[in-house]
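During the no-cost extension, the postdoctoral fellow (Dr. R.K.) reprocessed legacy sequence entries with the updated structure-token encoder. One reprocessed record is reproduced below for audit purposes.
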Amino acid sequence: MKNKALLAALCLLATTACSTQGQVDPDVMQIATRPLTCSNKAECDLWWQRAQTWVASHSKYKIETANDSLIQTAGPDGGKRALAFQITRAAGPDGTTTIGFSAHCDSSLGCKPNPWEAGADFKQYVRDTTGTAASATPSQNAPDATHPETTPRNTTRLPNGEAMSQ
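Re-encoded structure tokens follow.
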């Protein structure tokens, strides 16, 4: 009888622990989903350079492609929690340019860091005019192995057309 009660308590604890793992802070979500749109060539060129700097310092995978419209890393490797990145640069019909962010991993345990948090950090870093809002080094707030935050390759299209892995 004690074993059944213990098993029931463990199941309840496991269910409760799992119920909060996929949640993302609303402030992080707001930053991550805000379009990254620049309005002139100088600003766009600066932001594109910052984008490449951020990817180079945050990716566990090497950058395979870096040109005027795409920054793409290798990966993700099978079963790995590390994020692979694809950053795009597309001109809009109104003369603005949008920088898109996509991140995903290939682990059943979820990604590390959380793609939404990585997206928010990326956008804060790229937008920062002083170079201090977000560092060019990986975030210390990444979830650990006991708190997988996302599922692998679960990509969502945002209203602005950007792909964001969850």
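The longest strand covers residues 84-91. The CA atoms of residues 110 and 150 lie 4 Å apart. The remaining legacy entries will be reprocessed before the final report is submitted.
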